[in-house]
Amino acid sequence: MKHQLPLPVMKTIYSALFFSILQYGISVWGGTSNKHFNRLVTLQKKAIRHVARAKYNSHTEPIFKKLGLLNLDDSYTLQCNKILYKKKLDILHPYHAQLLKLKKEKQQIITRQSYDVIMNKSNNFQRINNLVYKVGISWNNLPFELKSLESIPERAFARKIKSHYLSKYKETCLIRNCYICNRDK
Questions:
Q1: Burial of 87 (0-12, 13-18, 19+ CB in 10 A)
Q2: Dihedral sign of CA atoms 54, 59, 62, 63 in order
Q3: CB atoms within 10 A of CB 81
Q4: DSSP-derived secondary structure letter, 14
Q5: pTM attached to this predicted model
Q6: Crossing angle of helices 72-88/34-52, nearest 10°?
Q7: Cα 138 to the chain's mean position, in Å?
């Protein structure tokens, strides 16, 4: 199909048949071991290369940027950030909301760090792969401008986070004499 159909149709097929399956429950299974997660990352890269009609070993970051799609790792982080934003909007289930504590709930003075999640230190593998821990890490790594957003709808917040992650993707390969790109910089 990749040589027959136009790019927008291929992108729709990718979103409907592949990415939607990856996204289902990603906030739960996204914290799995690297071994399992990396297998899915590899599959996603293969799929995105087919969509873009790229060579089998092409760099995928420029393709993701060109198509306006997030890689699996950033998709998981986006879902984690949406969970905490739901807490800020007070629409998160009370059980989960009580597990996530912002520093501003404990402080009298509001500072830039007031929007961070209070993290309990632990080296335990199960604790590190815990959803609450992952939500805290992903939220605390956001820029202050995104964490301090208050009264916008969840979809608008998700679009801002997505554009933030897409802005970090490189449009071209920066490796000098890259054997894949075969270009001399």
A1: buried
A2: positive
A3: 24
A4: I
A5: 0.88
A6: 110
A7: 9
- How far is residue 88 CA from its own chain's centroid? 19
- How far is it, in rounded angstroms, from Cα 48 to Cα 60? 7
Counting Cβ atoms within 10 Å, is residue 68 exposed (0-12), middle (13-18) or buried (19+)?
Answer: exposed
For residue 35 the two structure tokens come to: 């071994």
DSSP 52-72: HT--TT--SHHHHHHHT---H
For residue 56 the two structure tokens come to: 């089998």
In tens digits, the chain (185 residues) has pLDDT values of 778 899 999 999 999 999 999 999 898 888 888 899 999 999 999 999 999 999 999 999 999 999 999 999 999 999 999 999 999 999 999 988 898 888 887 766 767 777 888 887 666 655 666 888 889 999 999 999 999 888 899 999 999 999 999 999 999 888 888 888 774 34
Residue spans of the domains in the chain: they are: 75-165
* Structure tokens belonging to residue 36: 């399992």
What residues are paired with 178 via a beta bridge? 183
Instruction: Say how many residues make up the chain.
Output: 185
Structure tokens belonging to residue 21: 């399956």
User: 3-state DSSP call for residue 165?
Assistant: helix
